[in-house]
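Hi P.,

Sorry for the delay on this. The queue was packed all week, but I finally got your sequence through. Input first:
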Amino acid sequence: MYQRWLFTLLSLAIGCSTVIADTFSVTVKAVDADKKPVAKAEAALFWNVKDGTMTPADKKLIVTDAGGKAVLRVDDWDEKRPLMVLSADRTLGGIVGVSKADDGKEVTVTLGPTVRVKGKLECKELNFKPEWANTTVTADGYRAYFTMDHNKAATFELVLPVGKYTLGSYGTDVENAKQTVTLTNLRSEFDLGTLDLKASPVAKLRGKTLPEWVIAGARGVKADVKLANYKGKWVYIEFWGFW
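Then the structure:
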């Protein structure tokens, strides 16, 4: 039995180390519309947003050299991931897909004009703004989102290269909502106005009598127990999930 457990633990350790080590290296070359290298541009697979400022999520900045080149170490997700490159002044940007097939290769991304995208979030149904809200951005043709604006102002403001994107917004007491936008070089700013988010089912019940529940299992009480049996008493309910 001891040997069996030891073998299992060793197998798990080897398996985990394989996943962690499953990365690849790629050289990205940033050029402008005239094919000239763009130096001091920042490249990242994920970007954070704060007050409209885009910053790479990686602790170590990946910045292009005088030749417009930079080397990145990428975790292999078994899919093509969007890599966004922004010039130092954020006026130019571009996205290129990278995958394990690009290991050891050089990929070129052409930087074009960027567009500042902004909007507000609210729930007209219950006349309130979420206490906090996230807005994620997914580039057309990719599965994973590459940037997210998280704040408590129920707004979002992003700097994105020209292209097509899906914005997903969610927050306190509201349901998730998505919208697709196509950004062109005809405007430097795109105001999406106010997005009306639907109230979540629980938010709609706040302050109202709790609807009757069907209790599938209970201990210490009768099998046909109902919440109505405790009317006028305090009832403590704990919600939990596998996460």
